[in-house]
Design brief:
There is one protein chain. By secondary structure, this protein is of the alpha+beta class. It contains 6 helices and 8 strands; from the N terminus they run H-H-H-E-E-E-E-H-E-E-H-H-E-E. Strands 1, 2, 3, 4, 5, 6, 7 and 8 form an 8-stranded antiparallel β-sheet that branches. A hairpin with a 2-residue loop joins strand 1 and strand 2.
Length: 171
């Protein structure tokens, strides 16, 4: 594929979104939050240079952020140099007429083990703090703050909107 073909393919959604029927920001966010609240597993992509990793992990979506408890792994080699991440949450087995997903671009940060936020998220997730303290190796807590979230929901067409809606933190 030539360079121009890559660029044309990359511009597909940007061009389509420019004329799409958009829902208001609050409606989009509420639909995204409801979808994310109904799921608990995401694909977390991290990377830096030639190193790219996509890992399925459990998450919770609280106070507008993703929280992921993890023992570690190769995803951290990318995070060391690049705090930008991508998350995908989706319903499996969908067809083109019945798609439901959220794609996220965000920034990851470590939450200090056993600080107030760490313990609060553990409690929300139903993870006993005392059990975490007894582990031989610490469980890390990643906090991912969304910069952009894209909702793909075929049902939005029935409401007169494009099936693809974008929420950005900057409004």
């Amino acid at each position: 594929m030539e360079h121009s073909e890559y660029q044309r393919a990359a511009a597909y959604w940007t061009n389509k979104d420019s004329t799409a029927a958009k829902a208001d920001r609050e409606t989009v966010y509420k639909a995204i939050a409801a979808f994310l609240g109904a799921h608990k597993t995401c694909a977390l992509a991290t990377g830096s240079g030639e190193n790219v990793r996509c890992t399925p992990v459990d998450y919770s979506f609280n106070e507008g952020c993703f929280y992921i408890f993890t023992e570690g792994g190769m995803k951290f080699s990318g995070l060391e140099k690049n705090k930008n991440v991508s998350i995908a949450v989706f319903d499996g087995g969908g067809t083109f007429g019945d798609l439901h997903s959220v794609q996220v671009m965000g920034r990851a940060e470590f939450t200090e083990p056993f600080c107030e936020e760490y313990e609060r998220i553990a409690q929300i997730r139903g993870i006993p703090t005392e059990g975490l303290k007894r582990l031989k190796y610490p469980m890390y807590l990643l906090k991912i703050t969304p910069v952009e979230m894209i909702l793909l929901d075929s049902a939005l067409k029935k409401e007169g909107y494009s099936n693809r809606q974008i929420w950005r933190c900057d409004g």
